[in-house]
Amino acid sequence: MMAAEDSVIAANLERLRERVARAARRAGRRPEDVTIVAVSKTFPAEAIRSAYHAGLRHFGENRVQEWESKQARLADLQATWHLIGHLQSNKARRAAHLFDRVDSVDSFALAQKLDASLAMEAAEAGAAASGKRLQVLIEVRLGDEATKSGVAESDLPKLAEDVAGLAHLELLGLMTIPPFLDEPEEVRSYFARLRELRDRLVPRVGQSLPVLSMGMSHDFQVAIEEGATEIRIGTALFGVRKSVE
Question: Is residue 243 in some structural domain?
Answer without folding.
Answer: no
